[in-house]
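[SOLVED] Need 3D model of a four-part complex

Original post:
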Amino acid sequence: MSNAPGLDTIHSFLIVAEELNFRRSAERLNLDQSALTRRIQKLEHSIGFKLLERTTREVALTQAGQSFYKDNAHLLTRYAESIEGARRIAEGKAGHLRIAYMAFAATELMPSAVARFRQAHPHVDVALQYIRTQGQKLALANDEVDLGYMIGPFEHPDYNSVMLSSETLYVVTPLNHPLLRKFSISPTDLAEQDLILGDMREWEEYRRRLNDLFNAEGIELQVGLEASNTLALLGLVAAGLGITVYPESLIGFLGRSVEVRPIVHSQFRSRTVLTWKKSNHSEQVRAFVEVAKNLPARH
Amino acid sequence: MSNAPGLDTIHSFLIVAEELNFRRSAERLNLDQSALTRRIQKLEHSIGFKLLERTTREVALTQAGQSFYKDNAHLLTRYAESIEGARRIAEGKAGHLRIAYMAFAATELMPSAVARFRQAHPHVDVALQYIRTQGQKLALANDEVDLGYMIGPFEHPDYNSVMLSSETLYVVTPLNHPLLRKFSISPTDLAEQDLILGDMREWEEYRRRLNDLFNAEGIELQVGLEASNTLALLGLVAAGLGITVYPESLIGFLGRSVEVRPIVHSQFRSRTVLTWKKSNHSEQVRAFVEVAKNLPARH
DNA sequence: CTTTATTATTGCGAGATTTGCATCAACAAA
DNA sequence: TTTGTTGATGCAAATCTCGCAATAATAAAG
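Solution:
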């Protein structure tokens, strides 16, 4: 039993079983007729019984040969299909991809990348999941997602990450707010203002980052109110209870009840990175990152 | 594409995919570890992409490798099963057999052979078909049946046949018939008797044979009446309208309303042969013939 | 930090396998 | 009888495969 036949040998038998003629079969196989004869002989020897009944003038399938043919007729096709399926995955044209995203990537960065990726790789099924930055780090570690759009920067020896955007932060104020007299705002202008921010549980990383930024400038944030969603937050701002700070990608979605002004300061930016495990060698990940990095700049 | 892998190579990959360790896999395969490495390398080269991601310390399946594994996990099992199925047929332990029989084989010869054959080859399904001798010759020629129990002898260059029985012929008479005074009958005793036989359409070959036998003795048959089935025939005999001739195998089935006497003459016998096409190399046929030839003599 | 142990890979020569060419034996058709 | 076609076989060259030994990478242990 040590000598299992090759797929080519099985293929040879299938051809002979169809042609019932060694010379023609050998021709189809681009093989010498004697070699073909020997392949069949060896195959028969390896399984222990005759598959073909042959005289010098005629070749016929034995009953066992018929059964063997019927059972293995599609073996090669199946094998070829298994290769094609695997190849599509290897080339990143199939398989699946689980992508996590946080709020700031939800409006522009993630959708446009996913749209373009799906166009290029229609056979890859993409699963999207809203997870906040901290949760994404756990999800990545546990291999629950393949990629995460998170607030950056993020440096870690086990992960790769590329910075996809560094957006200007904007101050969001009620209409007719005093700050609007200036066309652009500096961080120090916000020192005395009441801030309305998302609460810690929901806006964790963003709050942390903002704190760091202001502290670096020697400014202590005065958070007067908290809300857990954007709509509530905007309502409070519009009502004149304070101001808030949002990255550029979101301000296009704000209503007309508030005004915005950019914060002019090289450090006051919101950075979004795309992160994945270094040990994740999936070709789909590579392909997606490629797409995400090279998105055409939005006017 | 000319280098299709061997089944052993595929097997090797499956093992490695399970073990995720070349050394252990090589051990399971009774193969040097370097040879295993090369098999996998060659396999990957033949399909054009990597199946395994390996460092010197760890082996992991690529996504493509996972897909390839899943698709081919049962390839070897299926192949092994295809061999087993074919082997059973090759050994005559499976497959199918179509057997035709005529009346004289129906009571003893065919049933006992079939019974014994099915016991030895339970996986062969046997299809039985009542066909008269002439019809069997057509059925065999058209490959509609594999074997035929027919009235013999039958000689033909394209067919094999073995004689299974040569039975004494018996005269069947009404009770108290004059012929019963003799314990055994000679053919000439029948010269003046009224005979009742099966009609030509239903009893074709038997009638032909009987005619030949009597003619060879210079006796012209006087067929007084014809019937198309045995029961009607016996009824006519019992009613005293004539006598008839049956082979030994049937007289045990006759009722008590008639008497029988053997015909003592070396040529006056009914021969039953089992016939099959020489071109039919089915192992089941061979096996059945073997069984049929070597049936234990009945009592 | 060094040593040790374990891993997969690579170089190489011996042996086995496969191939193509030439030839043969069987047999059908002319 | 001749001719042509079939599958099988002898043989030598090319190719492939294997096992042994050595190597490089790296994790674990001292």
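Edit: The mean pLDDT of chain B is 91.
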